[in-house]
Design a protein that fits this description.
This protein is an alpha/beta fold and 947 residues long. Helices cover 31% and strands 16% of the residues. The chain binds iron/sulfur cluster (3 copies) and FE2/S2 (inorganic) cluster.
Length: 947
């Protein structure tokens, strides 16, 4: 058995929590929790019982009959996987009779599944092979069966894995994994007896079926029947490194399994506290971008963006960059340059970039791509509860009775959390979905929302106020909670505000479009639940009143007493893998790490002493301010690490004008992204597989990122920032990212107890982690709020300027799709594009018909900011008056049409509401043509540099 398999010991059935039960197994005394199977009890005592259909990721099913045991006083031979332990039970796991029975069963399997192991890709990693060897079965007395599913062709339709019915032993593990873990119910068993076989959908291929390629069936298959194509081609992996997914804010833990220096597959980590052994198509399969031929692995410079790139050494690139940035500061002043940190990079890397800006650039012009997604979460939660982060661990949802999902689409954007959520819903929890669009959760297999409140884009604040209005005016408040936990003066003022008639569902109905009676019913359901939890996403934050809605959500949780324990809480679903971490690490221009204001002399002094530098007391520029200052001509140098602002930020034309205005744009990334078209320096980035560090997910969970392969360009991102800072005259000297974390812990109270040794021991840590909570804090605000008493903020509704008018009668809102990620830089370079290859415009059939638009027609989409062209998909997923698109492909120019409206408190762009007109057209927009020409020219320049 190889090293990987030894580390993945399977206990047969899931862990149970309960009263202790004592029994003997093969004469050995064993004590386990009530409800534990005999199989698991034996495994915990180090006794392996042969098994085929059982695995510890799934509840026992009892179909294969290989795991039989003898129990004193019981007739027959019960299956150990489905038999629960009992006090005083005496179990025998081996006897000549048991061996005979097991061998008979295995011979039957082998009659249908020849042991041609040496020619099989699963050789050495096959449970049937293991069982056959352990029982000494080499061939079947029954001979090979004829016909049946063994005659069927393998299904290779999925780009990442194949299904070979000839290798299938019909153990149902795949079906149960798809149903119970993933919740997609894509697999069934067709036929009966010998003829029964596994099939996707209704005798469809995997690609044609509802399968979402999460890989759970592949993980649980005991044979080669379902297997990764990479392993079939390359053979079994030889070593593994445990690390954290670099895609979304769920932060799944994975084993990167390698052969030599090639990552063959990513298998989800059963011990991963965020994902418990599950994954989605992105983390599980879409890692090939890391070694894609488009990776730039040599630093490049050029004097002007019309010049060809010139490949240079790292030293020359650093010297060139430092000289240019210093010259700009001499000519235009110290504040004429700045930096942008990345929510895709590690905490340690983000920390170093903000440190370099403050200490080496000498200003506070640092901001983060988290600005464009969850900055209102930070502001809203800090104001009301005292901490800028979600309140729960993901597993808390298993204790929720009512779950409100607002402005989030977990099935697409946070799929592994969605699977947990759906499991709870199948157990009976109630669901309220608040979204203009009919997202998958509204009606999916075995899940139906109790209320889908399809509000109009831009009316979130009116909605959340109406919910609280019903709670207060109908006497559903948790008075004890409010009296004990919240500031009374603020509460009374808020109460007076919220009970105002303008907040009643009847008055807000005209704004939100939600029928008053349905909103009242949803509010009652939420307020009367023993445990009600709120999960929200960018559909809340990316609005001109994003911060107000977040405060409204916190108000609703406080007024119903739903904070400070399991099963409740306010839970932002973060977009990118390290959005939480990049905010924690001091990436905002007004805050040092740990969200402490730069103007506070005591805080500043702490950092000044440690960093041996004088820090400026006044906050620096936010990203939109940097762009405005560039267009105005007094901001000239920018360092952007791991963010593609030219594609991801709103009002593309304005962003491009700002980037063109720079005299030194330094882009550090894996690929020559859209922003790099305007860059003078390109510094190769390193993928998550090439470095050490930590990410912090949406639950405040800090998890290790571990190097699996050497950096393709020779340097990890943290080393690059260190070298650039040195070239600027401010040397930093860390030998390993663990030393950066030690500094973070030294200077940041919420991280005081975090270090790599502890992370290795515990697996992960949810901050705050300090003397009071040495192993971290799964649930926040348990005894009291971080700010002491909870603060009810007044949340008056102010309509956005983006309103449907005669000129722009439709409201455009944006979102994500499961298989693509953010601006698509990674997923577009994987086979995920086979699932989704272009951004489209979803439009209601009524609106389409009015405009003469048919399915698949090209549509011109015009807003006051710009116009683009997208292909139409007619669907009633969107309501009349609303259109929807994604933003994963640069050429679709989705952000050419979004405006520069932004949240009043944080400048988070209002991506979710743009007034547009849509019409049938026959060719791309002027911007798209210009983009294509410019992109072609840049490709040519790159080719010249490489030649
Ligand atoms: S495909 Fe694999 S998991 Fe599914 S029934 Fe066949 S052997 Fe079992
Ligand atoms: S890959 Fe996931 S969704 Fe597809 S069949 Fe397997 S378990 Fe179901
Ligand atoms: S759910 Fe998110 S973190 Fe988990 S595998 Fe998918 S993309 Fe990665
Ligand atoms: S492992 Fe127990 S019946 Fe299959």
């Amino acid at each position: 058995m190889n090293e990987i398999r030894l580390s993945l010991k399977d206990m047969g059935t899931p862990l149970k929590i309960g009263q202790p039960v004592s029994l003997t197994i093969d004469g050995q005394a064993v004590t386990v929790a009530k409800g534990t199977s005999v199989m698991r009890a034996a495994a915990e005592a180090g006794i392996a019982i042969p098994k085929l259909c059982a695995t510890d990721g799934l509840e026992a099913f009892g179909s294969c009959r290989v795991c039989l045991v003898e129990i004193e006083g019981r007739k027959g031979y019960p299956a150990s996987c489905t038999t629960a332990v009992e006090e005083g039970m005496e179990v025998r796991t081996g006897s000549p009779r048991l061996d005979e029975l097991r061998r008979n069963v295995v011979e039957l399997y082998v009659s249908d599944h020849p042991l041609d192991c040496v020619n099989c890709s699963a050789n050495g990693n096959c449970e049937l092979q293991d069982v056959a060897v352990s029982l000494g079965v080499e061939e079947s007395r029954y001979g090979l069966g004829e016909g049946g599913y063994r005659e069927l062709e393998a299904d290779t339709s999925n780009p990442y894995f194949s299904f070979d019915p000839a290798q299938c032993i019909v153990c149902y593990r795949c079906v149960r994994a798809c149903d119970d873990i993933q919740g997609t119910f894509a697999l069934t068993v067709d036929g009966r007896g010998y003829a029964s076989r596994i099939t996707a959908g209704q005798l469809e291929s995997f690609m044609e079926s509802d399968c979402v390629s999460c890989g759970a069936c592949v993980n649980h298959c005991p044979t080669e029947a379902l297997m990764e194509k990479s392993v079939i081609i390359e053979g079994q992996p030889e070593r593994s490194v445990t690390t954290t997914c670099a895609y979304c804010g769920v932060g799944c833990s994975f084993h990167a399994e390698l052969k030599g220096d090639t990552v063959l597959r990513m298998t989800p980590d059963k011990a991963g506290q965020a994902n418990a052994g599950h994954a989605c198509v992105k983390g599980r399969f879409a890692f090939g971008y890391a070694t894609h031929r488009d990776r730039i692995t040599q630093p490049m410079i050029r004097d002007s963006i019309e010049d060809p790139w010139r490949e240079v050494s790292w030293d020359e690139a650093f010297a060139f960059t430092a000289r240019r940035l210093r010259e700009i500061q001499e000519r235009h002043g110290p504040d004429s340059i700045g930096g942008i940190t990345s929510s895709r990079c590690t905490n340690e890397e983000t920390y170093l970039v903000q440190k370099m800006v403050r200490a080496a650039f000498g200003n506070n012009n640092v901001d983060t791509c988290a600005r464009v997604c969850h900055s209102p979460t930070g502001y809203g939660l800090k104001t009301t509860l005292g901490e800028s982060a979600g309140t729960q661990a993901f597993h808390s949802v298993a204790h929720a009775d009512v779950i409100m999902v607002m402005g989030a689409n977990p099935s697409d954007a946070h799929p592994v959390f969605a699977s947990r959520l759906k499991r709870r819903l199948r157990e009976g929890a109630k669901l309220i979905v608040v979204d203009p669009r009919r997202i998958e959760l509204v009606n999916s297999p075995h899940v139906k929302a109790d209320h889908h409140l399809a509000l109009r884009p831009g009316s979130n604040v009116a909605f959340i106020n109406a919910m609280a209005h019903v709670v207060v005016t109908e006497g559903l408040e948790d008075r004890d909670f409010v009296a004990a936990r919240c500031e009374q003066e603020a509460y009374l003022k808020w109460r007076e505000f919220i009970t105002g008639e303008q907040n009643s569902p009847e008055m807000t109905e005209r704004i939100t479009g939600i029928p008053a009676a349905e909103l009242r019913a949803a509010a009652r359901l939420f307020a009367t639940a023993p445990n009600a939890a709120i999960y929200y996403g960018l559909g809340v934050s990316e609005h001109s009143q994003g911060s107000t809605t977040v405060m409204g959500i916190a108000n609703l949780a406080m007024i119903t007493g739903n904070l400070g324990r399991e099963g409740v809480g306010v839970n932002p679903l973060r977009g990118q893998n390290n959005v939480q971490g990049s905010c924690d690490m001091g990436s905002f221009p007004h805050e040092l790490p740990g969200y402490r204001h730069i103007s506070d002399p005591a805080v500043r002094n702490l950092f000044e002493t440690d960093w041996n530098v004088t820090l400026r007391a006044e906050p620096g520029l936010r990203i939109p301010n940097m762009f405005d200052a560039s267009v105005a001509g007094h901001f000239k140098g920018l360092y952007v690490q791991g963010e593609d602002v030219a594609q991801s930020d709103p009002n593309t034309q304005h962003v491009e004008a700002a980037l063109r205005g720079l005299e030194c744009l330094v882009v550090q990334d894996l690929f020559l992204n859209e922003t790099a078209r305007f860059a003078h320096v390109f510094l190769p980035g390193s993928s998550f597989l090439e470095k050490d560090g930590t990410f912090t997910n949406a639950e405040r969970r800090i998890s290790r990122v571990r190097k699996a392969i050497e950096p393709l360009a020779g340097m990890a991102d943290w080393e690059v920032t260190m070298a650039l800072s040195k070239a600027l005259g401010y040397p930093m000297d860390y030998r390993h990212p663990s030393e950066i974390m030690d500094e973070i812990a030294r200077l940041t109270p919420t991280f005081a107890g975090v270090n790599y040794t502890k992370l290795d021991r515990l697996g992960s840590i949810q901050w705050p982690c300090n003397d009071e909570a040495p192993e971290g804090t799964p649930t926040m605000h348990v005894e009291e709020f971080v700010r002491g008493k909870g603060y009810f903020a007044i949340t008056g509704f102010v309509p956005t300027d983006e309103r449907a008018t005669r000129k722009y009668p439709l409201l455009l809102t944006t979102g994500r799709i499961l298989s693509q990620y953010n601006v698509g830089a990674q997923t577009r370079r994987t086979a995920n594009s086979e699932f989704y290859s272009e951004d489209v415009l979803e439009i209601h059939p009524f609106d389409a018909e009015e405009r003469g638009i048919g399915e698949g027609n090209w549509c011109g989409v015009v807003s006051r900011a710009g116009n683009t062209v997208l292909r139409a998909v007619l669907t009633d997923r969107v309501q009349p008056g609303v259109v929807y698109t994604t933003f994963h492909f640069p050429s679709s120019g989705a952000n050419v049409i979004t405006t520069d409206n932004s949240d009043w408190a944080t400048n988070c762009p209002e991506y979710k509401v743009t007034a547009v007109q849509v019409s049938k057209v026959s060719e791309p927009s002027a911007w798209q043509k210009e983009y294509q020409a410019f992109a072609r020219r840049q490709e040519e320049l790159l080719d010249k540099a490489r030649a």
